[in-house]
Target: tRNA-specific adenosine deaminase
Amino acid sequence: MQLVFDDSYFMRKALEEAELAYEKGEIPVGVVVVANQQIIARGHNLTELLNDVTAHAEMQAITAAANFLGGKYLLDCTMYVTLEPCQMCAGALYWSQISNLVFAAEDPERGYRKMGAKLHPKTKVKSGILEGEASELLKRFFIERRNLN
Amino acid sequence: MQLVFDDSYFMRKALEEAELAYEKGEIPVGVVVVANQQIIARGHNLTELLNDVTAHAEMQAITAAANFLGGKYLLDCTMYVTLEPCQMCAGALYWSQISNLVFAAEDPERGYRKMGAKLHPKTKVKSGILEGEASELLKRFFIERRNLN
Model:
């Protein structure tokens, strides 16, 4: 058997992170950062638990990846995230000069593209990888929350 | 003698934070967050020291202010910052729904307005308070850095 480390493989790892957020009652968004085919950072949304709007999955993973690399630029890194980043996270990715961003579901309301924020010109973007599964998890979360209230 | 807690007073406190960044070799940007005429959070840029693009003065102060308040929304708070926020920090301020943003110097290159990012519709913005002093400090920093290299 040969393990295939493709976009779906890493996005599935990001989805596992999103599931962890879900279990904690957080909007289920998960991230992994990959360098040389290895996961160097993980993160999931913790805004409610930490009472902190800056605790998005991406922000935590950017800090962790830079920590791992010993430098603040995420050159030759790829971020896999289950939802299109917001303008805050896109702004952080901009400063990190990350090489690749891959996201699953679009965020037509608060995604960085709708809001007008910009990634770094060096950053290549791919979207739609495991979009169905990521959207399904988000939908399930919001339906459950609505039924609780 | 009566202390006057006006915009200049609080911006001067933000400038003191910027001076702390300057002394550490960081791009000199400083912040205070004010609620009920009291400073509830301070911060200065630490991106180099922490090797972390997310360690802008504003991001740290948003986290600290939410921590002080025990809630993630900065309603009835004012952020005083010596430089126009970038899109990452504007995005964080958007999520915080902060009531007021006051900045000193404009950032015509990387400021949130140039980049296209948006604050929350509830947030009122004022600019230009102690602009000269904030710009002077930034200019001094970049001239010194150039001479070092």
The two ends of chain B are 47 Å apart (CA to CA). Chain B touches chain A through 28 residues (CB under 8 Å). Chain B is about 45% helix and 20% strand.
